[in-house]
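Q: Structure tokens for this one, please.
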Amino acid sequence: MNNFLHKPIVIDNELKEVTIEGKRFYETPGGIFPSVTTVVGWDKQNFFADWRRKNPEESKRVTSRGTKFHSLIENYLNNEEIDFDNMIPNFKVLFNQLKPEIDKIQNIVALETPLWSQTLGLAGRTDCIAEYDGKLSIIDFKASSKEKRKSDIENYFTQATAYALMFQERTGIIVENFAILISCEDGMKQVFQDKPINYVKKLKQAITRYKNHALS
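A: Here is the predicted structure, written as tokens:
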């Protein structure tokens, strides 16, 4: 049995997810806000929409992989028994590659927790907020087909920054670190750590671009 320590912070955030013109929004006590992923991924939406049209089967596979991978990690962090012997081989490899990093997590305060911000006008669901390597962090788990370049995934960093700011607004607690943990099908494991404060400007720019183009 695993032994992850949970110290949950109660956040009254039962948000209702709604879809408007194909985009994800959340009904919050402060209004209807777009999801964090919609806003920070706005610049790349046309690229990915085109890719999905051209690669429908791979798109379904990748989406399913992400959902199942997140569920597996969530169960593991909840100290549930994992049947590694009967696990689909591909997921077993992806999980085992990332397991040493996942095992650095302790004092979990939020897991798959909805958050929202009146100030940012955003809402979303964070993977995990916990101590990672001893630092309170926004932690995001990714499965990827191949190794990522840092320059290609700044939207991951702005997304983590948004969760840090939303969590601070809801609880008053400052999260000064984020960790993006990626397990790749090409055999690579990647860890990207940084401080949310370094991406606040980029997040605000992403929000402005979204408002100028999506809402015009």
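A few notes: The chain is about 40% helix and 30% strand. Helices lie at 36-40, 45-54, 56-77, 89-102, 154-171, 200-214.
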